Task: structure prediction
Amino acid sequence: MGYLTQLRCRECQRTYPVGPIAACEECWAPLEAVYDYDRLRAELPRDVIAQRPPTMWRYRELLPLNGDPCVGGSTGFTPLVPAPRLARALGAREVYLKNDAVNFPTLSFKDRVVAVALSKAREFGFDTVGCSSTGNLANSVAAQAARGGFKAYIFVPDNLEPEKITATEIYGATLVRIRGNYDQVNRLCSEIAQKYSWGMVNVNLRSYYSEGSKTFGYEVAEQLGWRLPQNIVVPMAGGSLITKIHKAFRELQQLGWVEPLATKFFGAQATGCSPITTAAKKGSPEIQPQKPSTLVKSLAIGNPADGYYAVKTILGSGGAGEDALDEEVIEGIRLLAETEGVFAETAGGVTVAVAKKLIEQGRLNRDESIVLAITGNGLKTLSAVRDGLPTTAAIRPKLAEFEEHYLGLTPASVG
Amino acid sequence: MAITLRIPPPLRKFTGGVELTEMEATHLPDLFENLEKQFPGIKKVLCSEDGTPHRFVNVYVNDEDIRFLGGAAYKFQDGDEVLLIPAIAGGCGTAS
Result:
């Protein structure tokens, strides 16, 4: 192992030795993990990967760790499934779901990034970790910190779904609820990361943490038979995931593991918090922050850290950004559940609703392959959909009552 | 207007470790100018020549992102507390 060589500033290109830093000292731009691709190409044939256990660690040489991971040993390699009924409903030919709603251990794609971040935290010698989170990251840091024996401080907005609060506190992490939105929580975390020697996974460990998202992209390609999809639709909060899937696809082409293909990247947000899609629609990567107002709390980041790069990824690929109203999101969640038996959280509803819009608008080609990124589990946001479902009256355990209430038969017609 | 500015750790190499400074400033570009007078060399990290903050520099006034207050057009009030934070904070550098 150990193909990570250094960190490099994404703007001024200044390089730094591997360490717990995430921003360039000269211009404060984010730092990016750099690997020795020549050595990787020479030493790592694709066939080796296929023989490894079905987890994200089958791509370990492309992740920024020196040794074995200390947590998340079973994370990743979630199903990529064809979705023919959803495709029919959307009027598309070839749709796949990459289903991180069943990722391990906490049912979201964040398990990938946290597995990398905490393993790196251990390598750096941190005994305390933390994060600012809109929920899924909180769940994953809490669970994996427990597993890895870290102390954990987790900072969240106080309006999170109750399921996500419980699914953080249960692991014994210190949950700090902040009266404010995610951007205010994140600002506090930035101050904390600057003062305390903690491994804040999405702050000072961000250069490593975000690399974990690449495995989502590697898996999509491998599960398609080592080919890239023509289109992918990705939900965006901070905007990191879409840029890292793009990096993953680029790396696979660099390594010669897939045929070159210019995948179009489509970014999805909720209309009530759409700083990235708003910028993409204007054709400019300059982000104007917003005050989130949406039930899609997992994507409610008004000042997205990677928004600038997300827009560049989208526009550079020939894709587009689009957003969906809360009611369209709920419809998207139900459509996905009813057609494919996959219950996604609100972000999944955003992805489906946006895919539907883009296909209707003709910007997403209905005759090409389309992968939808499903990043979290619907059981975490039950409160968002519960009220919209039809409620049925309880009946007595009588056949006649069942037939009357559920089959629409009158007592006389049943005989 | 008399404002207070909190200097984040990555900038303290310019301030000799000073964490808090007071100054007179009307708009954001003045703040950067005055900061440069107090601590030479600091401005280029934060903004371009005309005082536009770099993309990854977030400026908060009394806990509110200055972009919600009008950005460069915002006129500081007496007693404003201004905070400069990297969009992605760099951290302390080492684990203890």
